[in-house]
Amino acid sequence: MNPQKSISFKQCLSKYCLRIVLALFVFGIPFAMMRIYLYAETKTINFRMFVEAVGYVFTNSGVHHLWYLYTLIGIYLLLPALKIFVDHIDRDTFSYTLIAMFIFVYCLPTLSDLIGAEIAFTMPLTYHVFYVMLGYYLKDYIDRWKTKYCLMGIFFILAVFVVADYFDFASGALASNDSPLTAVLAALIFMG
Q: pTM of the full predicted structure?
């Protein structure tokens, strides 16, 4: 996202994505083969198991713990477009965009979970794109807070998570990846 650095789609595909795909297969295939072996009736290792493991990696079956690699590929593919967007908008538009994303990607889905009713207003963006843009925004537009204030905020939010879990009050909705508290926690970590 650095304005002085140019990033092309070809560079993202051939350099960044290729590395992640390689890591995904290098680590995903052995994990998938272990899973297949453990749940198989006959404990044999063969070529069919390898082919099935490759299919598991393509479908993210049995390698869910590598979710961040799939997400990183998507972020790298979107990076040239995101870079063009942030390079050509002013600070107010950037702030407005992040606020709108925060409301639609975090607040409304969490409110929907808390009240148990579907809210029709949605935005077809994932929280991963929000985090990429938020990290860039905080790096370039917000003066860094003093570390002690960030740490106090982090501990406060973690305490809210613990209390919500202890009293079984919406702990799933509050501690999920698309929770407003998780987004604020990420922002505090970025600023710390």
A: 0.72
CB-based contact 144:191 (threshold 8 Å): yes
7: alpha, beta or left? (left if phi > 0; alpha if psi -120 to 50): beta
Q: How far is CA 186 from CA 83, 90, 98, in A?
A: 21, 23, 14
Tell me the pLDDT tens digit for each residue of 96-127: 999 998 888 888 888 887 787 777 776 666 78
Predicted confidence (pLDDT) per residue in 151-161, tens digit: 777 778 777 77
Lookup: tokens for 128: 């991963």
Dist. CA 167–CA 176, nearest whole Å: 17
* Cα distance between residue 124 and residue 139, in whole Å: 25
Helical (H) or strand (E) element with 11: helix 9-11
Number of Cβ atoms within 10 Å of the Cβ of 143:
6
CB–CB of 130/98 below 8 Å?
A: yes
